[in-house]
Amino acid sequence: MGRPRIKVIETAIEPDKVEKLEKEKLSLSEESEGKIEDEAKAAKKVSGRPKKQKTRSSRYKHLIDLIDKSKVYDLSEAIDLIKKTASTKFDSTLEIHLNLSIDPSKSDQQIRKAINLPHGSGKSIKILVFGGDTKKLTKLGSIIGTEATIEQINKGQIKAEKIVATPEWVPKLASAAKVLGPKGLMPNPKSGTISKDPEKVVESLQSGMVEIKSEKSPILHNVIGKTSFSKEQLEENIKSLISEVRKSKPESVKKDLIKSAYLTSTMSPSIKVDLTSLK
Question: Which of 39, 128, 158, 214 has the fewest CB neighbours in a 10 Å radius?
Fold first, then answer.
């Protein structure tokens, strides 16, 4: 047997068809390049512009030098230092920030309750009240809520830091829940802002009742007074708040509830506090 014969068939493409194919090839190439450019632009939008570093004032930089960031301060030392670093021209607000051993995504590990600080918070707040004795509430400095007020709230017009309501008004306020809920202003029995005696709640709020509430991150922030308070008043307020937080420890949390604590005043750096000194 000899070698198998292979028959070669030559085909010819007309010149106009060749030109058409070349144009299609070029078009596809340009389209691909365009897609790559679009993807690059989209990636740039997602990444966003690089964040600018915060520029600190010379005052703030001086205050940082007064604090040893590697040190955990005893409560007494921390209060002395926080008073020293409170160099604003106004009476600074003192806050405590607690990092908690909770899982905020679990409903049984959320913390929310109303407490009374022994010496108050030093902060005057605007309180909107639905229901109760209008004359008494007006004397207490409250804003009286009406159905027209609810309409204003739904339009985003909120002129209060706390909202108190009688049980009868709660169903009416349900329409504003989408606005008030995310802002933490919706009256709630756990925070003591739903009551048959709103006058008493307003008096408590004005005299120092504060709400302790864990956030989506396992952190709790609270005002505990003014830097003009005496050292003893601040110590008592802080220890009272810490005691109430520890009492609120969820049963499902087996570790120590408070992982770390920091004190800070308005426009000043934070100071880490030794947890053993908070008992």
Answer: 39
